[in-house]
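Project outcomes to date are best conveyed with an example. Our students and postdoctoral researchers have been running inverse folding experiments weekly, and each run begins with a structure described purely in tokens. The record below, which covers 319 residues, was selected by the lab manager from last quarter's runs and is presented without edits.
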């Protein structure tokens, strides 16, 4: 299978997943614009089915599996959002999903994953290899592994976020996207550049999850110790083999934000925009809220990737 993803693949994915993925709203805030010094258009995947953008890639992947393999089920590994997405997509076609999740994953994400009918297998993210566990389960059961980011089907599905945003808001100066493994920014950058070649793409990572930042500067994939950032969905220690070259090609720069900056931004989004955003989802907004992008950018799209956050975390956020 070719690792090359084109606009046509993303458009095909949009048609394929139309029955399961919501077309999420684009929100604006004059208060946020005043702080950011630009007009910002938030693509709110926190209102997506399963609470995050991941349903797009997971369903496009599962719906692309040949029928003779599909009945054996699927297996994946995830801290929560991809887990829920795979569980939902698997249930929609009546197959078993097994999810390998870290034992310190947010309780709400683990409970939701089980609630969608998936079997959850936990592991210690500091001492065990989740991909190795997933491969073992696949070998034992015949289930198809559904990668969370590093596969053309996943990337094409995630790119439908930008496809929708640019259909609704034209002539953006820039698109700002968070980076975990790189599936979202890869798909979105391919779609955005195809539709608007002059658009500038910026990635944002937590300071303690800066593997793509370091990799881009080194010119090769760099692995870091397991990140401890509050942005639990962005704790990938190494960029994907497929996603990293796409980032190198399309992304102008990668910006880092601190956990405190993420918390500040979550508070603003909750208090002023009345939207619940998980730490990973607030990362692009944090870069804008703290004015870390070039000052000449005046019309910016920002991805809010998800809203799955424990109530206990939100309570602590207010202290």
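After processing, the design step wrote out the following sequence:
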């Amino acid at each position: 299978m070719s690792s090359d993803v084109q606009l046509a693949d993303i458009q095909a994915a949009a048609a394929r997943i139309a029955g399961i993925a919501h077309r999420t709203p684009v929100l604006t805030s004059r208060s946020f614009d005043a702080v950011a010094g630009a007009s910002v258009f938030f693509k709110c995947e926190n209102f997506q089915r399963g609470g995050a953008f991941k349903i797009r890639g997971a369903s496009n992947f599962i719906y692309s599996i040949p029928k003779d393999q599909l009945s054996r089920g699927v297996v994946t590994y995830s801290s929560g959002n991809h887990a829920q997405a795979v569980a939902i997509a698997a249930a929609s076609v009546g197959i078993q999903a097994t999810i390998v999740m870290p034992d310190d994953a947010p309780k709400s994400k683990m409970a939701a994953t089980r609630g969608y009918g998936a079997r959850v297998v936990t592991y210690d993210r500091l001492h065990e290899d989740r991909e190795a566990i997933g491969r073992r389960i696949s070998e034992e059961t015949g289930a198809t592994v559904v990668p969370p980011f590093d596969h053309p089907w996943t990337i094409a599905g995630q790119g439908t976020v930008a496809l929708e945003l640019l259909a609704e808001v034209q002539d953006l100066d820039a698109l700002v996207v968070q980076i975990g493994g790189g599936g979202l920014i890869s798909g979105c950058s391919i779609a955005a550049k195809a539709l608007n070649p002059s658009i500038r793409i910026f990635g944002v990572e937590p300071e303690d999850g800066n593997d793509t930042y370091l990799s881009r500067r080194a010119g090769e994939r760099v692995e870091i110790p397991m990140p401890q950032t509050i942005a639990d969905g962005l704790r990938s220690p190494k960029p994907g083999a497929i996603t990293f070259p796409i980032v190198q090609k399309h992304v102008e720069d990668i910006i880092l934000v601190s956990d405190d900056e993420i918390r500040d931004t979550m508070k603003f989004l909750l208090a002023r925009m009345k939207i619940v955003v998980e730490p990973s989802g607030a990362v692009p907004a944090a870069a804008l809220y703290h004015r870390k992008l070039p000052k000449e950018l005046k019309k910016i799209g920002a991805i809010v990737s998800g809203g799955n956050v424990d109530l206990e975390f939100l309570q602590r956020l207010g202290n």
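Strands lie at 26-27, 39-44, 74-77, 97-102, 119-123, 144-145, 174-178, 200-206, 251-257, 299-304. DSSP finds 15 helices and ten strands in the chain. The training component of this project remains on track.
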